[in-house]
Amino acid sequence: MTYAHTNCIDCTPQRPARQFSLKHLALWAGLARQRRALANLTAAQRDDIGVTAQEAAQEAQRPIWDVPQQWRQ
To answer: Which of the residues 3, 10, 32, 41 has the least number of beta carbons within 10 Å of its own beta carbon?
Structure first.
């Protein structure tokens, strides 16, 4: 994307808004599904994976754009 400025002497082009692909949307949808499933685990299932009820609730309440660090590359 190019920007043309005719009335500006010392303008720096603005960076366009970040574009998200279908891949990003699919990852976010999958993450949302996983977080809903985590929220619906029974106490025995949480014990099996070593997660407390509080940890499960905190993770399930995170917004979909709050992704793991390794996804941000």
So the answer is: 10
For 44, the token pair is 């025995």
Taking alpha carbons only, the member of 29, 13, 9 closest to residue 21 is: 29
Geometric angle at alpha carbon 61, from 59 and 67, rounded to 5°: 60
Backbone φ and ψ of 42, nearest 5°: -80, 170
Please state, in angstroms and rounded to a whole number, the distance separating the CA atoms of residues 68 and 29.
14
Please tell me the distance from the alpha carbon of residue 47 to that of residue 50, in angstroms, as a whole number. Answer: 5
pLDDT in tens, 26-57: 888 898 999 999 999 999 999 999 999 999 99
Nearest to 46 by CA among 32, 33, 62, 58: 58
Confidence (pTM) = 0.61
